[in-house]
Amino acid sequence: MGGATRVIVLMPVTRTHRNMGSLSVSGEVATVTVEKIGGIDETTVEVPPGVTVLRGRNATNRTSFLQSVMAAHGSEWASVKGDSDQGRVELSLGEETYTRTLTRTDDGVAGSGLGLLTDSTVADLFAFLLEDNEARRAVERGVDLREIIMRPVDVASIHRQIRAAEQRKEEIDAELDRIASLKRDLPDLERQQADLRDEIAETRDELQRVEDRIDERDADFQTTQKNRDELETALDELQATRSELKRVRDDIQSEQESIAALRDERGNLAVERSGLPESPTERLEALESDIDRLRERKRELSEYTTRLQNVIGFNEELLSGEHREITDAIDAKPESVGDITDQLYKGSKTTCWTCGSQVKPERIESTLQSMRDHLQEMVSEIGSIEDELDELTGQRDKIAETRTRAQELTATIEDVDAEIERRQTTVTDLRERRNNLSARVEELEERVTTLRTEEFDEVLDLHTKANELELELDRLESERDEVSEEIADIESEIRRNNELAAQREEVVDELIDLRSRIDRLEAEATDQFNEKMDDLLDILGYGNIERIWLERTDTPDDPVHNSDDSVTGSTFTLHVVRSTDSGTVYEDTVGHLSESEREVTGLVFALAGYLVHDVYEEVPFMLLDSLEAIDSERIASLVEYFAEFPSYLVVALLPEDAQALSDSYNRITDI
C-alpha cells in the first residue's frame, strides 16, 4: 500500500501464562519497520509480548508483514516490492536493533545486514508457520516425518564421530595393556636396583676402610732417601690419581642424575604429544578441498534460489492484483483475446503475463506451488551444505591447532633429546677419563712395586686392594645406572596410565552420549507430539477422533548401530484412531482426516520440532498464517494453546475468525 508512514502502537496486556523463551523480552515491545517489502510500501508496527492478531481480508499485506518479520530474523523468504529496487526491514527488541536490506540485482534479490539469527533454518522450519511451511505441510504431503524432525541434526557426522571414538578407545586400551605389562616387570627391576645400591654402599665402605689404612701406613714406613723420594713421588701421584678418579666417578653420577631428570621431562612431553589425535596432511588438504567445493556449490544454489524466489514473488503479486499496469497492457492487445473456448468460458480467469492468454488462477497457482516446493528443496540443500561446512571447518581448525601443538612439542622434545645426548657424551668422556685414570693407577702401582721394600708390601697390597674395589665400584655403578634408566623409562610410561584412563573414560562417555543422542531426540519428538496432540484433541473436540499419535519404530539399518554414513534409521508412523457412535474403536488412515484435522496435526508436528530443538531459546517470535481451514472457535483454542510457548505469537486471521479470539489479545487491522 502507498501513502504516508503509519505507526501502529498497541499497549501490552498483562499475561499469566508460562513463556518458554530464554531471551529477556518480558514486557518489551518489539518494533518492526518495513519499507518496500512484499506488498508493503512503508509501515512501522509495535508488537508487545503475547498474542498479536493481524486482522483483515486477503491481500491486506498481513503475509507480507509476517515475511518481513522473518527477514528481520535472517530468513530469505521475502521479496522486494514490485515498483522498487530495494527493500528494508528493521527489528528493534530491547536494546538491540537488527537491520536487513534486500536489493534487486540482475541475478535476483540479494540480502545484506545483520539479522537476529546467524542461521534461520530451524526457525524457518519450526517457528515461522506460514501456509507453505514444510513441517506444517509434512502430514498432508505424506513426507518422511522423522527426516524433518532430524534435519537440524547431522546424523552422518555423529556416526563418523562414533567410529573415531571407538578407534581412539581401542588404541588407548592397547596402550593400557602395554603399560600393565611394564608394571608387572617393575618390582623385579626395583629389587635389582635396591640390591645394587646395597652392594655399592658396602663396596664404598670397604674402599674407605682400605684408603684409611693406606693413609696410616704411609706415615710409618722408612726407606732410603732416594727410594723414599721416588716412592713418595709415586705414592703422591697415585694418591692424587685416586682422588681424581673419585671426582670423575662423582661427576659421572651427577650427569646420570641430570640425564634421568631430562628423561622424565621428555616422558611428560611425549605423553602430551601421544595424546594428540593424528592430523595427517592429506586429511587437511582433503578438508580444504571439500570446503572450497561446498562453498562454490552454496554460492551457485544461493544465486539460483534468489532468482527462483523473485519469479515466485512476482507471480504471487500478479495473482493478488498488483501490477495492474502489466495485465492491462496485455489485455489491451488484440492477440490477447484468446480462442473461442476462452471467450465462451464465463468463469473467473487471469491473464498470463508470459503468453497473454486467459487461464484459470488455479492453474497458475498449481505451477507456483510446484516452484515453491522446488525452492524449498533448494533451501534445504543449502542448509545441509552450511551444516557440513560448519563441521568441516571445525575439523580443519582442530587439525591445524593439533598440528601446531604437535610441532611445538616435537621441537621441545628435540631440544631435550639434544641435551640428553650432550650429557651422555659428557658421561662417555668422563668414563673414558675414568678408564685412563684407572690405567694410570695400575702404572703407578707397578712403579711403586719396583721401588718397594718389605716395609712397603702391606701398603702396596692395600693400594692393589683399593684399585680392585674401585673397579668393582665402577662396574656396580654402571649396572645401577642402566637399571635406573630402565626403571625411569617404565615409570614415565606408568605416569601416562592415569591420563590414559581419564582419556578412556572421556571417550566412553562420549560414545554413550553419541550413541544415545539420536534416540533421545527422536523419543522426545514423538513424546512432545503425542502429548500436545492429546491436549489439543481434548481441547478442540474433534467428534469421533479418539487419538492421533506418532509411533517411533527402530529399523534394522538404524544408523545409530551401523558404521556407515547412512541417514536412514527409525521410522515415524502417524496413527489415527476413531470411534463409532456405538463406541467401537478402530484405526483409520491419515488420508481420511478432514482438512481442519490435517491442519491441526501439521501445526502440532511443527510445535514438536519447535520444542525438541529448543527453538524458543533463540527465536522470540512464532508466526501463524492461513488458518481458514479451521473453524473460528477451534482457532481461538489453538492460539491460546500455542501462546504458552513463544514470547511473541503473531497470527494472521480473517475478520470473522478473529472475532472468536480473546478481547485481551493485541489486534492490528491496518498495515
Automatic annotation (TrEMBL):
InterPro entries for the chain: P-loop_NTPase
Gene3D superfamilies: 1.10.287.1490
Organism domain of life: Archaea
Keywords: Coiled coil, Plasmid
Positions in coiled-coil regions: 155-304, 368-531
Stated family: Belongs to the Sph1/Sph2 family.
Name the record gives this protein: Chromosome segregation protein SMC
